[in-house]
Amino acid sequence: MIKSPKLIWFDAGVQRALSGEIGGLSGTQYESFLVGQVLTTLWSLRMRYEASYLRTSGGLEIDLILESQGGLLALEFKNRPTVGCHDAASIERARRLLGERFRAGIVVYRGEDCCV
After folding, report:
1. Can you give the pLDDT at residue 4?
2. DSSP-assigned letters across all residues of the chain
3. What predicted TM-score, i.e. pTM, was given to this entire model?
């Protein structure tokens, strides 16, 4: 695994103004916005967790890992109106890598359908 910091913008408007990208949200902006929203919501609910992301030298990336005493939750964010089974492939790889502490994985996207 690779340990490195990751910049998360809690205010998408500020990030977009500073970058000059004021059109639709890019994938990076969408991810950063949602990570910020999840973290802000959990902090406001006073939920105890540790937030990180996963990146391996083999190319595996998970956008947000939430860890608590109960285990790990993996979140993958997709800036698309539809997703398919292939979009959960990184979560499946993370499940095998993280072992028995892994509890669940969720792909979050812009669409309206919920699939299990």
Report:
1. 58
2. ---------S-HHHHHHHHT--SSPPHHHHHHHHHHHHHHHHHHTT---EEEEEE-TTS-EEEEEEEETTEEEEEEEE-SS---GGGGHHHHHHHHHHGGGEEEEEEEESSS----
3. 0.82
